[in-house]
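Quick question: who can interpret this fold?

. . .
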Amino acid sequence: LMNSLSQEEKENTVIIFIGDNGTPQQVAQEYNSSRTKGSLYQGGINVPMIISGKNVMRINEAENALINTTDLFTTIANIAGINVDKINDSQSFYESFSNSSFQGREYAYAENYLNATIRNSTHKYILFSDGSEKLYNLIEDPLETKNLVQQSNLPLSDSNEIIKNELIGKLQEIKQ
């Protein structure tokens, strides 16, 4: 697509290609089919995005920072030359176009009906409407197969308890 543009058009164009909300069951090979599109698991909420064009200096690199689709509002404003850091819940990731050490959001939140999830850079907490809960270490368990809350009859480790409480607190703050 970029190769079809003239040099003048390239100097004034940014293309953002983003997937829909999750991977359909028919094509989700890594994920259990109940953990794809329409779920709060990574297969349902983690979507690909490709950005190319003016001021995009990072070529063929993956970005691991937490970014929410709402962040497109502020980012596109920045691309257009409007200097804002935040619009409502939108936080710009424009800096990531050229900075591989970009930090992004501290938390990412999603909801589905009465269920909700929140994650930070390492862990993810899911609260279901029936009160059941799940906590995953996404670094050690990216496919979310080991629920740390129900892993054994033993209580969570101190560090996991702290992370869980931090995520619950942030989730409650967002939902108010």
User: Anything to note?
Assistant: The domain at 106-176 is CATH 3.30.1120.10 (Arylsulfatase, C-terminal domain). The beta strands are 14-18, 49-53, 86-87, 90-91, 108-112, 115-119, 123-127, 133-137.
